[in-house]
Write a structure and sequence with these properties.
Layout (H helix, E strand, L loop, with lengths): L12 H12 L2 H13 L3 H29 L3 H12 L6 H36 L8 H9 L2 H20 L2 H28 L4 H9 L8 H14 L6 H6 L8 H29 L11 H12 L3 H34 L4 H21 L14 H28 L2 H8 L5 H26 L4
The chain binds 4-fluoro-L-phenylalanine (PFF).
Length: 453
């Protein structure tokens, strides 16, 4: 059994928690959660999403950390080793391959959206120094989307920033970045919540978010809720598995898993509770906001509130930081795999991954301008990529992870990794949820998606 990874190790339990939370908390919480909630009618969607976090997300989070820590390598190689040890087929490596592919697809569009946030941070920074204010947010946003050059620049900048951290490796790059950036993020988010509470529309927002209208439930909505649960917790593409490979032995996996999942969920709910009061107070429709929701609604508030420019600057800086720490974890699995399998250095490997993801991201850039007319199954190009990666590939990856952890790894290994002192009933509960309940739920949703039921 390996006790360290060739890529380096987190220096402490807290370092892992910060890194994994940094991965989980990102655009998924602050950009995507509010907009998919808005597009899916509010309360019922949120409750189904929360159920997915608990019944699907958390067991898979534990399983990913277990597999990662036991294998101590990038996902594809960890799974190969563990499958060999268990006498199982090497075809299980397919799980790692799906993960790496999903990672490229997600990183490609993620970096484009992160580029929007960098651009907005910069707009407010310029405004602070006398630049033109955002008076018509709708026009500013449409203007940005119409410019492939501008989108490509910011997408490229984000990719470079991400690559810069990954190139320096686990201790010097990842750990140092997250331990400074994460605490800043929490403070800024609480300030934003304080503003939301003072708009006078806090209860309306809370009831939009939590009062379920079950008539809105549809198969498509459940698929989106599950996809969002995977996306927001960074599960199904072996990112948390990769971080697990750098987790010191002896750290209690169930506890750190709960901490990360709970923090991520709280951040999404706080983001919703901060953003929807603003949307409502400006007379915007909380429903059907689309991917531009925060970019078209929040600047209205920033234009009116005292110190709004500083606030706007802080908010988009916060979002860029959150996206950055997630982007790092999107890039790490493929980079670690290249380092293990070739004689490229970490810096060269990170450069290759960043270059490929940047080129793939151009498809998302063009989906708003040059390819605006292109529609794939009724979706624009970026939404189609988002749909395939988040709503299909992540659940498939999660399903395979649960099956691998539940049925292929011996329960001696999983028990040893999870927590040796765990009571038998608790271990059995985890085991059977991971073996049966979680896979069954994912299968039902996927079967619905493909029209089988
Ligand atoms: N969890 C991130 C977010 O919510 O923004 C996105 C993400 C990161 C998804 C890493 C998947 C992943 F592996």
């Amino acid at each position: 059994m390996q006790t360290t990874s060739i890529h380096g190790m987190w220096s402490s339990r807290l370092a892992f928690i910060l890194a994994a939370t940094g991965s989980a908390v990102g655009l998924g919480n602050i950009w995507r959660f509010p907009y998919v909630t808005s597009d899916n009618g509010g309360g019922a969607f949120v409750l189904i999403y929360l159920a997915c976090i608990l019944l699907v997300g958390l067991p898979i989070m534990w399983t990913e950390i277990v597999i990662g820590r036991r294998g101590r390598m990038s996902p594809i190689n960890s799974i190969r080793e563990l499958a060999d040890d268990a006498g199982a087929s090497r075809k299980w490596m397919g799980l790692g391959i799906i993960g790496v592919l999903a990672g490229f697809l997600i990183l490609s569009f993620y970096s484009v959206v992160a580029g929007w946030t960098l651009h907005y941070g910069f707009l407010y920074l310029k405004e602070l120094f006398g630049g033109t204010p955002i008076t018509d947010p709708e026009a500013t946003f449409t203007g940005l989307l119409a410019s492939p050059g501008e989108l490509t620049f910011w997408h490229g900048l984000f990719m470079l920033m991400t690559m810069g951290v990954v190139a320096f490796g686990v201790e010097k790059g990842l750990e140092r970045a997250v331990s400074i950036l994460m605490p800043m993020l929490f403070v800024l988010l609480l300030v934003l919540l304080g503003y939301g509470m003072n708009t006078g529309y806090f209860t309306d927002a809370a009831s939009f978010l939590f009062r379920p209208d079950w008539s809105q439930v549809s198969g498509g909505m459940i698929v989106t809720a599950m996809g969002q649960a995977f996306f927001t917790l960074s599960l199904g593409m072996c990112a948390i598995m990769t971080y697990g490979a750098y987790l010191p032995s002896g750290v209690n996996i169930p506890k750190v898993g709960i901490t990360v999942a709970a923090t991520d969920t709280v951040v999404a709910l706080i983001a919703g509770l901060a953003i929807f009061p603003i949307v409502i107070s400006f007379g915007l429709d909380p429903e059907g906001g689309g991917a531009g929701l925060i970019f078209t609604s929040l600047p209205l508030a920033f234009a009116e509130m005292p110190f709004g420019i500083i606030y706007g600057f802080l908010f988009f800086t916060l979002l860029s930081i959150a996206a950055w720490t997630s982007g790092i974890s999107l890039m790490e699995p493929a980079t670690a795999y290249i380092v293990e399998s070739t004689n490229l250095s970490r810096k060269a490997a990170a450069l290759c991954v960043a270059a490929v993801a940047w080129i793939m991201g151009l498809a998302s850039v063009f989906s708003f301008n040059l390819w605006a007319e292109v529609s794939i199954g009724g979706r624009d190009v970026m939404s189609a990529i988002e749909y395939v990666a988040n709503d299909i590939m992540l659940p498939v990856g999660g399903l395979l992870t649960a099956l691998f952890g539940g049925w292929i790894l011996s329960s001696r290994i999983t028990r040893e990794e999870l927590d040796k002192k765990m009571p038998t009933w608790a271990f059995n509960a985890w085991l059977w949820i991971t073996r049966i309940v979680t896979p069954a739920l994912i299968l039902v949703v996927l079967a619905g998606l493909f029209g089988i039921i």
